[in-house]
Specification:
By secondary structure, this protein is mostly beta strands. It is built from 3 helices and 23 strands.
Length: 408
Amino acid sequence: MRKHLITAAVLASGAAATSAFAADLGADTTVGGVAFLDVSNISLQQQQANGTYKDVNPSGTGFDVKRFYLIVDHKFNDTWSANLTTDAQFSTAGTTTVLTNTTGGTASVISTQTTSGGVSEMFVKKLYLQGKFSDAFVIHAGSYDMPWIPYVESMYGYRYVEKLVADRLGFGNTTDWGLNATGALANNKFNYSVSVVDGGGFKNPTRTKYVDFEGRLGFKPIEWLTIAVGGYSGHLGQITTSNNGFPTNNASRLDGAVAVNYKGFRLGVEYIDAKDYKTVNSVAASVYGTSSVVNTATIAPPSDEADGFSAFTSYAFLKQWSVFARYDDIKLSKDVAPNLKDQFFDLGVSYKPIPAVDVALVYKNEKVTDGSDAISGADAGSSYTIGGVNGTTNGKFSEIGIYLQYRF
């Protein structure tokens, strides 16, 4: 739901005061937005070597604005249109150092980025030109939705409460820079999406040595049933001319999903198998998150695989009220640290007072066993680490709070 906003035209005129002219939004341009907010209490506990648990950040009670998207759409004609979607998040980082590997395996600094830290930062999530030549063939050039994660989000329905498993565990991007083709055929019984991208995600639009590929095929044999398969292959934007001769792995992902949406009842299952995305830094520590694509000129990255499933359900028992639940069970490192595992569930009740607003009372619980992993979620800082102090200890997370989605 997006409105034509006179205010946006006024702001655009003010911003362009030093230019020769200001842009006129006109009838073919719409401006809208989406915000994810929550107030909750988090308990994150790390198991120590002696078996006791210790509270760690971000434990406590607080208010978050996790995401704010500002969306601008413009239609040139019946074929061509464009979209700009900005994203905002809170950043606590003051300095980011980027390392590259040199011959002999010694890491050297190639760039250091200094930010103010502790501020809300805005960046481009989507920026694309669209050409719609038919329902069966639509092209997008720029930063656009990847074929898999946004598609399953549409079946799931509760993105404002929690990211999907590939997104939150770092096995995929929601958008990326490149070329995409989508379409629907046979009276919408079949749909597809294919992307050729840089591989580093929408936050990293840099040139890489090779492009990556992701695709999806969806099938709706009947209106209330969706079946989809997908896959990814590439180097995640990590291979450049400086490390092109290093030993590398190829990151690949296989996806499958089945979902039912019938008279207010939703039930879905997603399966994921991600090979050579990430691994642990050592078996003893079992700290997950080290790249499994490229290491050094002399040391090949270990091959590693993660797989598991996510099951979600919801039921709209009244026009404005729904209950929902989800369970994820993922083996993070089947080849290097096979006991490292992440289990997550949530449940809640949601209320829609007006079409533009969703409010949910949510309880979340998560456990990482025999190691630790950085999870993309929990608070406005975008990620947190859950797990024990070594490869034989655990971490546990719980949260209860009010989540809100607002669209305009």
